[in-house]
Amino acid sequence: MSLPDGSWLLGSREELLCAKGDLIGNPAQGIVAALREFADGLAPTRSMIAKARFEDYDRTLRRKS
User: Fold this and answer.
1) Does residue 15 come out as left (phi exceeding 0), alpha (psi in the -120 to 50 range) or beta?
2) Is 18 exposed, middle or buried (0-12, 13-18, 19+ CB in 10 A)?
3) pTM (global) more than 0.85
4) Residues contacting 63, CB < 8 A, separation 6+
5) 36 contact partners, CB below 8 Å, separation of at least 6
6) DSSP string of 9-65?
7) What is the mean pLDDT of residues 13-28?
8) Mean pLDDT score of the chain
9) Band of the pLDDT at 61, cuts 50, 70, 90?
10) Cys-Cys crosslink for 9: which of 1, 36, 54, 58, Cβ 3.0 to 4.6 Å?
């Protein structure tokens, strides 16, 4: 989830695992490790919370060029 103040939250289907600025995120299933760099690049939203859902079956994100 991307928040209006530029922060973000990462989670699994069941729970929130990490927020921007957390020193220690929940390492469950490698989700935070796989998505943290992507989340850091998100632009702040305007006066709303934006939710996106990703599936990472092989633990690597591939950017389309």
Assistant:
1) beta
2) buried
3) no
4) none
5) 10, 18, 25
6) EEE-SSSEEEETT-SS---GGGHHHHHHHHHHTPPPPSSS-B------TTS------
7) 86
8) 81
9) low
10) 1
